[in-house]
Design brief:
10 strands; 12% helix; outer membrane lipoprotein receptor (LolB), chain A; 178 residues
Length: 178
């Protein structure tokens, strides 16, 4: 069993992804992945909570995200526009433009992901697909009720042994009755 260290860096990222899926069973992740990839245009809201080892409290940001799945796009599988409290991020398939409203700066890079705020639904779809093949990285937890609505509760665990940090992500998938 892998030993997890919490010394250098600890991330706790909570994502609320509202994606319709059928009943929760062993195929839940694959069904969700296929459903997400079949959509043409997706808008949703993320609540991102992050805590580093040197922070006393979590930082929280609500992100308004718009993604366009495009199978030809090699990095994440599409393009996105993400708007947060002090930042916006746009990835067009070739470059990521990050705008920081607080200090009126911008950054352009080739990589589609530049931290937890740019981990779009496309990113998480890829993570779920890779993680579904490794049973020790993904656990289906008990269903969760949010505003009297049932959600499948999935925990994704990632450990970076080089940087010595543990990242736990909780994903809630909206359930429809089948």
């Amino acid at each position: 069993m892998m030993k997890f260290f919490r010394s250098s860096l600890f991330y706790l990222i909570t994502y609320l992804l509202f994606v319709n899926i059928g009943s929760v069973n062993g195929q839940t992740l694959q069904e969700s992945i296929q459903r997400i990839r079949s959509l043409k245009n997706i808008s949703y809201t993320d609540v991102v909570r992050t805590k580093f080892s040197f922070q006393e409290d979590f930082s929280v940001d609500t992100l308004s995200s718009h993604v366009l799945p495009t199978p030809e796009e090699a990095q994440t599988g599409g393009c996105y526009l993400i708007k947060g409290g002090n930042n916006s991020y746009a990835f067009d398939g070739n470059k990521l433009i990050s705008l920081n409203y607080a200090d009126s700066t911008y950054k352009i890079q080739k990589e589609s992901v530049s931290g937890q705020h740019t981990r779009s639904l496309l990113y998480w779809t890829n993570v779920l697909e890779k993680s579904a093949k490794q049973s020790n990285r993904v656990r289906l937890l008990a269903d969760t009720l949010i505003n009297n609505t049932s959600y499948a509760h999935i925990e994704v665990i990632d450990y970076d042994s080089i940087a010595a940090f543990l990242k736990i992500s909780y994903i809630f998938l909206y359930k429809t009755s089948s």
